[in-house]
Amino acid sequence: MTGQIRQDLRNGVAVLLLDRPVANALSAELRAELAGALDHAATAAEVRAVVLAGSGSGFSSGVDLTEYDGSLAEPWIDALCTRIEDFPKPVIAALHGPTFGAGLALALAAHARIAQAEARLASPEITLGMVPGGGVTQRLPRLLGAQVALEVMLAGQTLRATDPRLRRLFSQVTADDPLPAAVDLAGKLADQGHWRRSQEATRGLSDPAGYQRAIATVAERLKGQNGAASDILRAVEAAQLLPFAQGLAFEATLFEDRLRSPEARAQRHIYAAERRASGMPERAQAAIRDISRIALAGARLGDVALLLLEGGKVVRSDAPDLRASVSRALDGLVTHGKIEAATRAAHIARLTSGMAPVDLALCTRGSEVADETLSVPLDDGRGLAGAPLGLRLYRPAQTLRLAELAVSDTADPAIAASLAQLCTGLGVTLVRAAQPAAGPGLGHILMGAVCLAGLEMVRLGLTPQRVDQAAQRLGFRAGPFLMMDFDGLPVVANRLRAVAEWLGCPAPGADDPLAERLAKGAVGRAVGRGFYDHPSEGPRPPKNLAGPGRDPAEVLGTVAPRHALQAALVGAAVQLLARGAVQRASDLDVLMVRGYGYDRARGGPLFAADQRGMLAMLQDFKALARMDTPLWQVPPMVVEMVKNGEGMFGRRHD
């Protein structure tokens, strides 16, 4: 058979090889071909067993996310998995590389599994606000028990085939290619004439009381929640209580309901956006340079050094405090079991003094390196306006793993592409910011617009705490005033001047709440006072706060404070898009979710605006226009979207 399934007959065993770029995603075409190949194998006299395997780097990455936003083409995964489980001849799955999502469902439906030791398995649906389909919630508990099944599905993490929790899944784990061993096992089962189907597995159900304890423990943790996690718990409970066929039907109902939920659509959006973000034209235009030795010039770059060391890079620096800072951080990782002592020693061995020879120097403002060294400015919080090429690593770098690459028309494409490749290799999601259109930077502008809006509302009588609460209702983990305290108010003041100029707004003046706090020496968390007091137990409103402030309706009329913040952010975003500062709108959602703690379950602020509807946004802009500030001017792009019935991502709203 040609196409996306390659077929080979070995000693009466039909090897069906999934063969579709990229990562053997289970497209509708591949599923149809696989169903046809199974139909042929079921009736072919020369076939006595079947092995399912994947070509290339892995078994299968599952269903392409884009399919979930439309109608699900037949044959769907659940029907295909039932076909495999009920197959009249033994079916063995040979697993190597990634086996994710619906790929895992196929493997569990097989009558046995043989895995290469480095194979990786995951049920990542929870990270997309979804419930696993294809019978995973029913087969996995039967094979592994409730506790392990819930750990796998609720964490959504990738596990090695050698993980002790997964040992019951496999007939064999081998260091070699699993395909020959799978063919041998298939032949033996065919000779025996009997084999066990997953629905017949009882070991995971052998301790009913323990199964219920695992259910009760998770139920207590999820008390009051009503999302994908609670649905997964209900499905795993059903695996013990219902006959297998009814359990599958229950899972299918939960899957369909959760698939269409706003949370699932939002999380699929941001998941896909993260994977698109790093695509940039320079990567196709120029040869990539290897960057393995990197100098860091500047202060307080310990987190950047950790990111590079974890990525296997040699890091050089003359900063006197860097080694001590990195050593303390690594000691903490060892203490908490995150890394081994040997890994710590290897990292420290690659941290050396001096600034040469290196392949690249990352330099904060005011730091210098030798003229002959390839040097790229590193944003220290004040932006990268004017730099032909620059990098902003969102901090802490080794935790957030997010970067903006500022690229001008005069930048060397080879260097830009090499920096992009460096970030990708470090596991950093990268967004391209076109200069000079992006001015101080994409994230600085978006969050700066939120901060300027918040300052305006406080100037008119709202309290910082009320504005921060509004930002949290909008989807931010923390509001703009708490974020400003964490960054340091002097740094924020300088940055907001640049952002205001880019937006065409008046910069914060002497009568502004920010200037007032600075005049009182309240410069942020570092000194314990900013817009909040910062005692050791955590931030709290200042003791001298004078009353609750004005009613929001007196200040904003019919517009809720959270929607005023949303309007400022959307207004800045459409300016970035109109000026060509960013490649795609979804890149801005990635920055806000990954860099500023916007709720992932809402898909990012632009996706949330889309879901709310551009007409509602336009009405807010018109209502806020009486404030007489460019921050809330009606954006022509929003007007055009409403006229055309479109949203930020081309969606129409009824």
Automatic annotation (TrEMBL):
It comes from the Bacteria. The keyword Lipid metabolism applies. Residues 530-550 are annotated as: Disordered. Keywords: Isomerase, Lipid degradation, Lipid metabolism, Lyase, Multifunctional enzyme, Peroxisome. Coiled coil: none annotated. It holds the Pfam family 3HCDH. Its EC number is 4.2.1.17. GO terms for molecular function: (3S)-3-hydroxyacyl-CoA dehydrogenase (NAD+) activity; enoyl-CoA hydratase activity; isomerase activity. PROSITE patterns: ENOYL_COA_HYDRATASE. Its main location: other. It is found in: Peroxisome. It is an enzyme of class 4 (lyase). Residues 453-533 form the 3-hydroxyacyl-CoA dehydrogenase C-terminal domain. GO terms for biological process: fatty acid beta-oxidation. InterPro entries: 3HC_DH_C, 6-PGluconate_DH-like_C_sf, 6PGD_dom2, ClpP/crotonase-like_dom_sf, Enoyl-CoA_hyd/isom_CS, Enoyl-CoA_hydra/iso. Monomer. Belongs to the enoyl-CoA hydratase/isomerase family. This is Putative enoyl-CoA hydratase.
